[in-house]
Amino acid sequence: MKRNDSTDLAQVLATLNEIATSINRLGVGQDLSATLNLIAHEAVRLMAGGSPTGDDAPSVVIWVFDEPGHSFDAAQRVAAGEPRGASAADRPRPDGMGARAVRAKRRLLSYEAGAPAIHPAKREAGAQVLACYPLLVGSDVAGVLYLYRCSARRFSVVELLLLDNFVQLAAMAIHYGRRVGGLSQALTRKVREMEKLRRASGLLGSRTNLDETLNEILAIGLDLTAAQYGSFEWFDRRRNLLVTKALAGSLEQPASEPSLPVNEQSVVGWVALHKTSLRLGNLAEPPWRDIYHPLPIEREMRSELAVPIIGAGGGLEGVLNIESPQLDAFSAEDQLLLEALAGQAVVAIQEIRLLDALQEIVQVLLTADYDELLRLIIERACDLIHVSDGSIWLVQAEDDTLLLRQSTDTVRIGETLSLRNSFTGQAVRLRQPVTIDDIRFEPKFMHPEMAEQRGWVSAIVVPLLAAQDNAHPVGSFALYSRELRDFSDWDKKLLTCLANHAAVAIRDAEQLRLLKQAQERQATAETIAAVGDVAANLLHQLNNKFGAISVRVQGIEAKSANTLAADTYLANNLREIAQSTRQAMAIVRDSMAPLQPIRAESVNLARCIEQALARAALPATIAVRQQNLRKLPPVVAGEKQLEMVFYNLIDNARNAMDGAGELHLSGRVDNGFAVITVADSGPGIAAERQAAIFEFAGSADERPGTERLRFGLWWVKTFVDRFGGRVEVDSRPGRGARFSVWLPTDPGIEP
After folding, report:
1. Listed range (143-157, 402-416, 510-524) with the worst mean pLDDT
2. Is 209 helix (H, G, I), strand (E, B) or coil?
C-alpha cells in the first residue's frame, strides 16, 4: 500500500463508520456473515491503496472461533481479495500462526523471528507476507483475521494501525452478532412460550367447573415441558391433605390415588409444605428416593418437576406435578414456565371457586334458612382469600348502627357498631373495601381484646351492595387474617363480586322470609278465624250450661233453705258446686280469649309492656331493667293480644330464671319496625331446641293459684305474625335467651 501525507483520511473514516453502522444493525436486517464480508472487503480495499490488483494485491481471511467447541467454525469462514482458484482449505493449524496468536493474544507477523511458516495452501496461492490478529473481546476469543500479501514488502506502521481498527471492529462484530443471535433465538423461544401461555389463559378461562380446570392446567403443563406424565394434587385444607384431581399417562382414575399429607414424607407433600418448586434430575438420589410416591404408571419415572399453586395471601391451592422416565428431563426454563402457568392457574381456580360459591348461595337461598345462607357467605368468603374468621353486619338504618347478624365467633352475634365511627361502617359509607394492615397498632379498631384473643392481625371489610339498590347498602362483611396481609386488588375484586351477589341473595332471602311469614299469617288467621267461630259457639253453649247450673243451685238454695240449714254437708257441697261452676266459666273465657277477633289499633308500647309486667307480678328476686321503651313509636296491633305477647315472654323468662335473675327489656327502631327485646339471665336454650320452641304444645299452668291452659310461645308467634311482625330468638347455653319482637310502626303517627 503506497500512501503519503495526502492520504484520504476522510475515506478511511467513512469506511470505518460504515462498518460500525453495519455492526449496529446486526439483528435488524443484517446478519453476522454480511458484516464480516464488509470488514474483509474494506480491509482489502484500504490495504491495496492504488494497486488493488497485481503482485502486491492483499487478501483477507477471517475465521470465527467456536468457544464451546474450542475450534474454528468452517461454516463461518469469510475471505476477500483471494487470487482466482485459491484453496479455502486453510483451516488454522494447531501450531500455526493463528493458534499462536490466539494463545499469545496479540498480533503476529510472518517475518518476525520464530514465526511459523505461512499455511501451505496460502503459500501455494502466492502469499509471502502475513499479518495475523487474534480477534479478542476482553479475554474472550472471537476469531482470527489473516492479511496476506503476495510480495515480500512488509507492512508499514500506518497499515498496521489501520489493521488494528479493523481487528477491533471484526471482534466486536462477532461478539455482538453472537449475542444478538442468541438473544434472537431466546426471544423467538420466549415468544412461542408466551403464545402458549396466552392460549393457556384462554383455555383455563373457558372451563366451567373445577375438575375441568385442573385437568386443563395439567395438560398445559405437559405441553409446555414436552412431558407425558403427571398429576394435579388439590389441597383439601379442611383435612390438610393433597388429593389427586387430575392424572396423565395412566388408565387409573384420579380418585383411586391415595391422599397425601402436607409433610416431608412425599415429594409433592414437601413442595406443598415449603411452598417452593422442586426440580429433581434423578429420583434415585437421596433423600428423594426414600419419599417418592410413584404414579400408577408401568414405566419407571427418573425425574420430576413439582410446582406449588399459591393463592391469595400465600394460601396453598395445590401442586402441579410433572414427571419423566428420562434423567434430567426438565430444565430451569421448564420450571420458570410452570411457575408462570401456576400464576394463571391461581386466577382460573379462584374464578371457578367464586362461581361455585355463587351457585351454592343460590341453592341455599331456595332451600335453607336465613342463618345458613349467612354462614355459607362467610365460609366462602374466607375460603376465597384464605383467612380464618369473618362476620356479616347488617345496616340498621333507623338508629344509624350495624348489627352483627352472623359470625364465625357466634358468641358476639347481636352486637352493634356505629355506622359512622367504625371501620366496618366506613366500608359501607364509602361503598368500597377498607383494609387494616395491622389491627394490633390501629387505635381506632373497636375490639382490640377480641383481636388479641383470636389472633387477628390484618382485616378487610367489604360492603354488601345490591346492584339494583346501591343507594341503600345491605351491610358489610369483615374478614380477619391471623397473618400480616397486604390484601391485593385481586382479593378486593373477588370479595366485591361475592359481596354484590351476597347482598342480592340476602335481600331475596328477606323477601322470601317475609312472603313465607305472610303466607303463614294468612293461614294462621284463617285457622284462628275458623277455630274462633267454633270457640264462640262452644263458649255460648258452655255459658248456657254453666248458667243453668247456677240457676238451679240458686233455686235449691231458695226453696230448701231450712233443709240446707239443718244439713251442713249438703249446704257446703252446694256452695262448692256453685264456686266450681264460676271458676270453670272464668277458665274457659280466659283460655278462649286469644281466639277472639283482633281489633287493630295504635298501641302505646311502653304502656302495654307496663300492663304485662303488672300482670306478671314478678317477685323482688328478679331485677327488671328497661331501656329506650318510652322512645318507641306506637305500633299497629291488638292491644289486648299484644299485652298477652309480652306477658308470655316475661312469664317465660321468669320460669327460665327459676324466679331469680335479671330481666332486660329494651327497644329500638329499624326500617319501619319497632324492635322490642326481652332478655333473661337464665341458663339459655340449647341450639337443637330453638327451632321447636314456637311450635304448638298446650299444657296446664302448674303454679299454685293458677289453673288456666298455657300455649306460651306459640301464641306469641301467632299474635306477632297476625300483627304483621316477626319474633326471633337468640340464645347460647349459659348466656340466657333474647327474644326480639318486630312490630310495624303506626305510619300515621310521628315517633
Report:
1. 510-524
2. coil
pLDDT at 196 over 50: yes
Q: With cut-offs at 50, 70 and 90, classify the pLDDT of residue 751.
A: very low
The DSSP string of 427-468 is HHHHTS-EEES-GGG-TT-S-HHHHHHHT--EEEEEEE--GG
Whole-angstrom distance, CA of residue 122 vs CA of residue 83: 10
Task: Find, among 484, 488, 459, 464, the residue nearest to 474 by Cα.
Answer: 464
Average pLDDT, the chain: 80
Q: What is the pLDDT of residue 697?
A: 53
3-state helix, strand, coil in the chain (%, to 5): 50, 20, 30
12 C-beta neighbours (distance < 10 Å), count: 16
From residue 364, alpha-carbon distances to 369, 374, 477 in Å are 8, 10, 18
Per the structure block, which three cell numbers stand in for 459? 382485616
Q: Over the stretch 296-309, which tens digit does the pLDDT of each residue have?
A: 888 899 999 999 99
What residues does CATH 3.30.450.40 cover in the chain?
9-183, 207-355, 370-498
Task: Count CA within 13 A, CB hemisphere, residue 201.
Answer: 9
Q: Are 257 and 244 in contact (CB under 8 A)?
A: yes
In whole angstroms, give the CA distance from residue 35 to residue 20.
9
What is d(CA 110, CA 87) in angstroms, rounded to the nearest whole number? Answer: 20
- What are the Cα distances from residue 514, in Å, to 44, 369, 508, 726? 99, 12, 10, 9
Q: Which fold has domain 207-355?
A: Beta-Lactamase (3.30.450)
More confident residue, 62 or 685: 62
Q: Cell 238451679 identifies what position?
A: 552
User: Which residue from 141, 150, 142, 143 is spatially nearest to 118, judged by alpha carbons?
Assistant: 150
**pLDDT per residue as tens digits for the range 551-597:** 787 888 788 878 878 888 888 888 888 788 777 777 766 666 555 66
pLDDT band at 698 (very low <50, low <70, confident <90, very high): very low
d(CA 633, CA 650): 21
Measure the CA–CA gap between 43 and 18, rounded to whole angstroms.
Answer: 12
Q: For residue 51, which amino acid is it?
A: S
Residue 42 vs residue 700, higher pLDDT: 42
Q: Name which residue leads in pLDDT, 346 or 69.
A: 346
Mean pLDDT of 34-39: 78
Calculate helix-pair angle for 370-385, 489-559, nearest 10 degrees.
160
Nearest to 495 by CA among 392, 622, 634: 392
Within its chain, how far is the Cα of 731 from the centroid? 33
- Cell 318486630 locates to 742
Environment class of 126 (CB within 10 Å of its CB; exposed 0-12, middle 13-18, buried 19+): middle
**CA–CA dist 506, 395 (Å, integer):** 12
Pairwise CA distance, residues 467 & 474, whole Å: 11
CATH number for 599-751 (one of 3.20.20.140, 3.30.565.10, 3.40.640.10, 3.40.910.10): it is 3.30.565.10
Asked if 274 and 285 touch (Cβ cutoff 8 Å), the reply is no
- Alpha-carbon span 514 to 520, nearest angstrom: 10
The whole-number pLDDT of residue 706 equals 40
d(CA 101, CA 144): 8
Helices (H) and strands (E) in the chain, counts: 19, 26
User: How high is the pLDDT of residue 710?
Assistant: 43
The fold of 9-183 is Beta-Lactamase (3.30.450)
Q: Which CATH number fits domain 370-498: 3.20.20.70, 3.40.50.300, 1.10.3300.10, 3.30.450.40?
A: 3.30.450.40
CA–CA separation, 219 and 221 (whole Å): 5
Q: How far apart are CA 429 and CA 422, in angstroms?
A: 10
